[in-house]
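FAQ: What does the model actually see?

It sees only this:
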Amino acid sequence: MTSIEFSYSLNQLSGVLKPFALKLTRDLDDANDLLQDTMVKAFTNQDKFAEGTNLKAWLYTIMKNTFITNYQKMVRRATFVDTTENLHFINSSASLIENSAYGDFAIDDIYRAIDKLDDIFSTPFLLYYRGFKYHEIADRLSIPIGTVKNRIHIARKHLKEDLMVYKHVN
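And it is asked to produce this:
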């Protein structure tokens, strides 16, 4: 393939490559730059193209590799490496002071909500909360396992309603 034929083929395929460049970069100007870089690389490396192979696939490969290389360069440029010795700690958990008053209020509210439940709901719920399995609770209370699951479900539902004030608290 002569240089003129190769140049003509590149020109014909540039329209097919533009959507791929746009997909990679997600920006029209960057896509145009990527397309131009791809065409320059293809033209300067024309001797590496094996005639009879798929030129379009070769160009796609050049474009993809160019995009990856440019992306890696951009990431490296944007990466800041701090080589100074760390003599201070910002937002260090070692100097964090936690105010447990809010947590104490929440725990008190939870226990009050559990105390308001009927015993038939609170007992299975508390056993489950303490780590007992459904079948262990059923054996201990001498009730069917389905009843245990139902009572725990109802207890959770009531607690959810009573503790709605804590729904959006982080």
